[in-house]
């Protein structure tokens, strides 16, 4: 099942669901509503044996699939999970204080964990862990039942300094936390929708608001209405409309694990269903909304939903004097957004703030500078080699180690083994997730309006031409979804820019929705 299936079905809205729960609460909050009356939505549950369970809220006792998490450090156990709204990746924290991203896509890399950073985080986590992303700053909130209160950078695992232990009452034992409005592009109030951090203490059986989050102050909302033994995760759906939002928590009651609805206004729990017998839940996570990033001609970063065109927001990338950014891509290995400057430098862009940082200059292994050649450039990460592929409209073909800028100058692009130079202005690899062992590089020639496969990529050979069926301008955004396997393009046709899907087997394009102006690059999230 695709992550995109998380979106609410029109048959049963969350508003109707909440109204139904209010009727049930008048009778018995321990009696779950009937299955068909519940939202038809997916979430993931982490169990204490390092397994993930994909579950429909309508039938919590029968997971749609369960799979082992592999690739962990020897003896490590995961203690909490959450999806990163900015990229769609599932993150996890462990008993050995390691931060991981975990592949939820079905296939040969299903459940593969990749550690973020080269070492554990610089803190020892004591007790049960609450773990959730703050969508406004793209940082991870980590709290524990021993009153620890931390923020982590999702791309490095570094601890953001300045937070205080949890406080507000004697001996807080917060075991789970969740932010509202957990969507990419959300900005802090009062200028934006903002976000609120909710906490559950299984010792006091209370729901709290952590406000302000960094100083760790806990303000009571109300009692859970249930004497729970443990809390095994808490999450709040990322819906845009307040009437569609639903909060859920995994709690242990009567020696059994169950899923409950959490009333954020009162704190009261309503049982939704039981988890499978003998499965001990330590974390839950609701998939985020689909997300994509477009680098505009004016140097802005537009954040939008590639399924329906809804714009989540715009980040202003600080201007670098004399430099124009030529393309972007999210690196599968660490989830960071990288950009290529026309000054032959690699930059990192903070997905929370839009801040840009110079990372490396292109150079050969002997430190000889490598200069870009061309006017339009295609930029995409090879997920197998973890190298950035850069091509241009005049046939340049580069492989770049973004850690140090060391560049391999590959053979120039050519049509066939010895044909003319194509006008390639966009490229994208398939299977863009860590650990993949196979990938295909697709190129777009914006003069001939042709989709090619570049194979071998290092030789620059353009093969298997397929017509796009539209006349596109050279400024293109192009990327490929991991789950859907589709190509996605931002094309300007007859002066109008729109978002298209691309059938990679035929080259055929399908218009989806108009887009606000021409672009230089596109990067789609990992859940698409």
Can you give a write-up of this model?
The chain is an all-beta fold and 528 residues long. It folds into two domains: 283 residues, Neuraminidase (6 Propeller); 233 residues, TolB, C-terminal domain (Neuraminidase, 6 Propeller). Helix content is 2%, strand content 41%. The protein has one helix and 40 strands. It has a five-stranded mixed beta sheet, with no helix packed on it. The protein has a four-stranded antiparallel beta sheet with strand order 3-2-1-19, with no helix packed on it. Strands 4-5-6-7 form a four-stranded antiparallel beta sheet, with no helix packed on it. β27 and β28 form a beta hairpin. The longest helix is centred in the N-terminal third of the chain and has 12 residues. InterPro entries: DUF4394 (IPR025507), Quino_amine_DH_bsu (IPR011044), WD40/YVTN_repeat-like_dom_sf (IPR015943). Pfam families: DUF4394 (PF14339).
- Helical fraction equals under 10%
Shape: elongated
Radius of gyration (CA) equals: 24 Å
Major beta sheet, specifics?
5 strands, mixed
CATH topology call of the largest domain:
Neuraminidase
Low-confidence stretches: 1-13
Estimated structural class: mainly beta
- So what's the CATH class of the largest domain? Mainly Beta
Strand order of the largest sheet: 31-35-34-33-32
Number of helices: 1
Please, what is the oligomeric state? Answer: single chain
Mean pLDDT: 94
Distance between the termini: 12 Å
Name of the CATH architecture of the largest domain: 6 Propeller
The portion of residues forming beta strands comes to 35-45%
Q: Give the total of beta strands.
A: 40
Number of domains: 2
């Amino acid at each position: 099942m695709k992550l995109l299936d998380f979106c609410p079905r029109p048959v049963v809205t969350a508003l109707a669901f909440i109204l139904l729960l209010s009727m049930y609460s008048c009778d018995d909050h321990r009696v779950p509503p009937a299955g068909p009356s519940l939202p038809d939505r997916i979430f993931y549950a982490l169990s204490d044996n390092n397994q993930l369970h994909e579950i429909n809220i309508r039938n919590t006792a029968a997971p749609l699939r369960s799979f082992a998490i592999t690739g962990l450090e020897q003896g490590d156990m995961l203690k909490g999970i959450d999806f990163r709204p900015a990229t769609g990746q599932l993150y996890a924290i462990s008993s050995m204080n390691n931060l991981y991203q975990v592949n939820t896509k079905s296939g040969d890399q299903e459940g593969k964990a990749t550690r973020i950073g080269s070492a554990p985080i610089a803190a020892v986590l004591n007790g049960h862990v609450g773990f959730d992303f703050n969508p406004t700053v793209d940082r991870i909130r980590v709290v524990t039942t021993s009153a620890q209160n931390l923020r982590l950078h999702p791309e490095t695992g570094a601890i953001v300094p300045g937070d205080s232990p949890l406080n507000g009452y004697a001996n807080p034992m917060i075991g789970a936390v969740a932010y509202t409005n957990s969507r990419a592009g959300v900005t802090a109030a009062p200028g934006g929708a903002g976000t609120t951090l909710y906490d559950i203490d299984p010792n006091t059986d209370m729901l709290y608001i952590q406000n302000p989050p960094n100083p760790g102050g806990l303000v009571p909302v109300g009692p859970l209405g249930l004497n729970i033994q443990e809390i095994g995760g808490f999450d709040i759906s990322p819906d845009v409309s307040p009437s569609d939002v639903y909060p859920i928590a995994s709690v242990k009651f009567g020696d059994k694990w169950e899923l409950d609805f959490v009333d954020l206004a009162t704190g009261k729990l309503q049982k939704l269903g039981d988890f499978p017998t003998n499965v001990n839940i330590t974390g839950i996570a609701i998939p985020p909304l689909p997300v994509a990033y477009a680098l505009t001609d004016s140097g802005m970063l537009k954040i939008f939903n590639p399924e329906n065109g809804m714009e989540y927001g715009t980040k202003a990338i600080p201007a670098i004097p004399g430099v124009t950014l030529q393309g972007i891509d999210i690196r599968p290995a660490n989830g960071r957004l990288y950009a290529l400057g026309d000054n032959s430098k690699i930059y990192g862009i903070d997905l929370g703030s839009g801040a840009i940082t110079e990372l490396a200059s292109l150079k050969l292994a002997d430190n000889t500078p490598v200069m870009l050649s061309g006017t339009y450039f295609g930029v995409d990460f090879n997920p197998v080699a973890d190298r950035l592929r850069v091509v241009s409209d005049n046939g340049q073909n580069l492989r770049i180690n973004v850690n140090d800028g060391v560049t391999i100058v590959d053979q120039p692009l050519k049509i066939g083994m010895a044909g003319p130079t194509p006008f390639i202005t966009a490229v994208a690899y398939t299977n863009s997730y860590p650990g993949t062992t196979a990938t295909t590089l697709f190129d777009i020639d914006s003069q001939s309006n042709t989709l090619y496969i570049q194979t071998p990529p290092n030789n620059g050979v353009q093969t298997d031409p397929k017509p796009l069926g539209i006349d596109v301008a050279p400024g293109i955004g192009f990327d490929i979804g991991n789950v859907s396997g589709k190509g996605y393009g931002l094309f300007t046709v007859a002066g109008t820019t729109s978002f298209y899907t691309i059938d990679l087997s035929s080259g055929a394009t399908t218009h989806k929705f108009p887009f606000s102006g021409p672009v230089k690059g596109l990067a789609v999230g990992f859940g698409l």
